[in-house]
Amino acid sequence: MTTMSDVPLTKDVEGDAAPLAEDLVVLDGVNKHFGALHVLQDINLTIKRGEVVVVIGPSGSGKSTLCRAINRLETIDGGTITIDDEPLPAEGRGLARLRADVGMVFQSFNLFAHKTVLQNVMLGPIKVRKQEKAKVEERARQLLDRVGVGNQADKYPAQLSGGQQQRVAIARALAMEPKVMLFDEPTSALDPEMINEVLEAMKQLAREGMTMVVVTHEMGFARSAANRVVFMADGRIVEEAEPQQFFDNPKSDRAKDFLSKILHH
Amino acid sequence: MFDFLDLQRYDLFGAFWVTAQLAVFSAIGSLILGTILAGMRVSPVPLMRVFGTGYVNIVRNTPLTVIILFTSLGLFQTLGIAMGGDTFTETNFRLAVLGLTAYTAAFVCEALRSGINTVPVGQAEAARALGLSFTQVLRLVVLPQAFRSVVAPLANVLIALTKNTTVAAAIGVAEAALLMKTMIENEAQVFLIGGIFALGFILLTLPTGLLLGWVSKRVAVKR
To answer: How the protein sits in the membrane (chain B) (predicted)?
Structure first.
């Protein structure tokens, strides 16, 4: 499956319901400091509906902070973030409602340790969306099947491998039927042999037309699943391009330097 | 040898029944109030944090005798708050429960807060990311795990509470320690009487400790 064949499918699926190139997530002049450290510097980024944007860059470049700022797990000092034309509320009910529409997958899975896999997936729809329990359970089981952990539904997170836990985390986020999914280094805490099963679930999601922001070090995933690669360094977006162009012919020296270090071994 | 133990004259079981009631009502009250205080201490609202911290630091560092005497002398005799009691006995009992609850809640709060710190921050973030409100995150994700990790320390708090009920004697609640005082004044067998009451308290507290120790192992969250 190549990127080229992904795109038309994505847009056809979304095309019926929404205009083709609608902006879903818009970051405008976003700034953030951690004390003296200027982690996000004048970030302008627009993510269209159905688009898969992969954010890469060296450690400490601000890519995780950027990802977490989109659902306000990190506050920002300046600029605006809008999701589906709605500015990000500062706190309270408005913020909770918005977060319900933004799925998030973390590096460390963060499953609720005292609940079973099935309960993890059902919690959001029941408590936030107030949906009927029987329907939620049916959907939760479908989602778990979809990411390949349906037979683990009644186990506790600690009984699962890292790769299985991360796929449960993806199912938990999907259960909320989000408009956009954020992935904050979803494979960085996994043993090498488990990375592919998670990436495969993410690729499937991308094929189905989900809008995705993925912070990752997996260049193979960026190449094959992304519509666009955003390269960050020192708190700035240094380069934005289609994956083919970015990996084969990077423009900035910073990106060339980064790619030469990670690709030639 | 046990001639002095005239159960017609000294209502030993009645006194320990009052002790047990004091302990149970205060335990329920302090678990509820302590949980609310712990919630305040981790709340995003600064005013709540200030109140929770202030409450714990003031109450925890005040002697229980002072608090219990204040409920009687201050709340009841000065301000006329009788807690809905019709008789002195009823009022004093309720005041004692109030004082014990207020005091023990500070310790419950701190035990619980140490439990909250054992729950990985990421889980609370994941819960917020799903769109749960602060109270939902606390109620559904953080507190259930926090409670499980502090059952053993909470057992300590409840055992201390059971023994602390003896301070209620200071405002005339007819619990075990008050009866012991009366018996020691009237009878000669000081050591035996002391031994009987010590045994009575051990019979109340030892099962509490054993039971909660067992519960603690049962409910531990696997990580």
So the answer is: Multi-pass membrane protein
User: Number of structural domains, chain B?
Assistant: 1
- In terms of Cβ atoms closer than 10 Å to its own Cβ (0-12, 13-18, 19+), residue B130 is buried
Model pLDDT, residue A264: 64
Cβ-based contacts of A97 with chain B (< 8 Å): 131
Domain that holds residue B209: 3-219
With beta carbons under 8 A apart, name residues in chain B contacting A128: 130-132, 136
Q: Is some CB atom of chain B closer than 8 A to the CB atom of A90?
A: no
Q: Is the minimum CB–CB distance between B222 and chain A shorter than 8 Å?
A: yes
Mean pLDDT (chain A, rounded): 88
With CB atoms and an 8 Å threshold, state whether B131 touches A123.
no
CA distance A132 to A116: 19
Which pTM value belongs to this model? Answer: 0.84
Rg (CA), chain A: 18
Per-residue model confidence as pLDDT tens digits over B56-94: 999 999 999 999 999 999 988 889 888 887 888 888 999
- The model's pLDDT over B5-59, given as tens digits with 9 standing for 90+, comes to 778 888 889 899 999 999 999 999 999 999 999 999 999 899 999 999 999 999 9
User: At B189, which CATH number?
Assistant: 1.10.3720.10
Check A128 against B130: CB less than 8 A apart: yes
Q: How much is the average pLDDT of B144-162?
A: 94
Cα B8–chain centre separation: 31
What does the angle CA B115 – CA B95 – CA B176 come to, to the nearest 5 degrees? 85
Determine the pLDDT at residue A21. 60
